[in-house]
Write a structure and sequence with these properties.
Growth Hormone, Chain: A
């Protein structure tokens, strides 16, 4: 029964990254279909869900008081499928953006569940391995969805949105195996809660600011060295590296818990140092691998530390905060990095190196030796 419950929760993790990333390969054909429209409207197709994910995360504890777990998961997943695949049927940019906003609301409902339920149903000593698996499934969802959306977009621009029908699998598993309990938790999002968990929340924000420097710049900077297919395979390869690291995270955390806080900031620093140092293929591949390792360690590490500290109340306390920080970092990354790069004349990768140093300092100053329950 525990395995079925675990597979059910991991199926939700598989879906969350698809909110924006799944449609990214189709932006070219979508832009061509809506030729003449403001390019910002096309970009919002990918970025708009993040804003509504953040807003929904802020009211997530209230939703948990309103609905039990299975009900909340089914409402979120049902909205996910309807808003995602529903875009297939529209041919108006404004209606399309409405569906994308609803997609953000749906992910805001299921994202905290994808990690919080692991803390609720499984003991603290299993958290590292489970958070690694959750992060790995998240990365795999990105790989599968990106590939499928790219293939479907080859048929027609709107076919890419049919990738969200994958949510039907999670709905079936939730109906069959997820208990309908009311999650424990007191109050809602507050300054005192943020103060308690600020090392993990700020860390998650910095991880996402750092990571999204890569997808927003790599294709542009690597195009002179790698072919279009080479760029695509390198970026998919980064997701595969992060997936493999996530699978190993549990055992790494048990053996090197005290040192793990350094891995993500140093990995990002090494990655952006390679990308800033040269434009040769070896520099690009090595830098991409380091960034994949950093992302594959950073997210499950922060989720693990937060979930162990919060215990069974993680789903209604720290997980909505971490989810909001994740998507806020994703949304603000280009708005932070690009102006700094323009003002200083540095490359985005050099700015990333500086932010990685800031992240390392934050990890050293705010984290004591982290040990997991035996």
């Amino acid at each position: 029964m525990k395995k079925r419950l675990l597979y059910t929760i991991l199926s939700i993790s598989l879906l969350t990254v698809m909110a924006g990333a799944a449609i990214a390969p189709a932006l070219g054909v979508i832009s061509a279909h809506f030729e003449g429209r403001n390019p910002l409207l096309i970009q919002l197709i990918v970025s708009l869900p993040a804003l509504f994910i953040i807003l929904t995360n802020l009211v997530f504890p209230w939703l948990c008081r309103l609905m039990k777990t299975r009900t909340l998961a089914l409402v979120g997943l049902g909205l996910y499928v309807l808003s995602g695949s529903g875009a297939f049927f529209v041919d108006n940019i404004w209606m399309l953006l409405v569906f994308r906003a609803l997609m953000g609301v749906s992910v805001g409902m299921i994202m905290p569940l994808s990690t919080g339920l692991l803390a609720y149903y499984f003991p603290p000593e299993e958290q590292a391995g489970l958070m690694g698996l959750s992060a790995a499934m998240n990365q795999m969802g990105g790989v599968v969805a990106t590939f499928m959306a790219g293939v479907l977009a080859g048929i027609s621009w709107n076919y890419a949105f049919l990738v969200y029908l994958l949510g039907l699998i999670a709905i079936a598993l939730v109906v069959l195996f997820l208990p309908n309990e009311r999650l424990q938790g007191r109050g809602g999002i507050s300054l005192s809660l943020l103060k308690r968990f600020h090392p993990s929340v700020v860390g998650m924000f910095l991880v996402m600011v750092l990571f999204f420097i890569y997808p927003t710049n790599f294709a542009l900077t690597a195009s002179g060295t790698l072919s279009e297919m080479g760029v695509t395979l390198t970026m998919v390869g980064l997701d595969v590296v992060a997936f493999l690291v996530g699978l190993c995270f549990g055992s790494l955390m048990k053996r090197f818990a005290a040192q793990m806080k350094y891995v993500a900031p140093l990995g990002f620093a090494a990655g952006y140092l390679c990308l800033a140092a040269g434009s040769g293929a070896m520099w690009l591949l090595t830098g991409s691998a380091f960034i994949g390792i950093a992302n594959g360690i950073g997210v499950p590490y922060l989720n693990t530390i937060g979930s162990v500290k919060a215990g069974k109340e993680a789903a209604t306390t720290v997980m909505p905060l971490l989810s909001a920080a994740l998507y806020l970092g994703q949304f603000l990354s280009p708005l932070i990095v690009s102006p700094i790069a323009s003002a200083t004349g540095m490359s985005p990768y050099s700015v990333g190196l500086g932010i990685a140093a800031l992240y390392l300092l934050q990890a050293v100053l705010t984290r004591k030796k982290q040990m997991l329950p035996k």
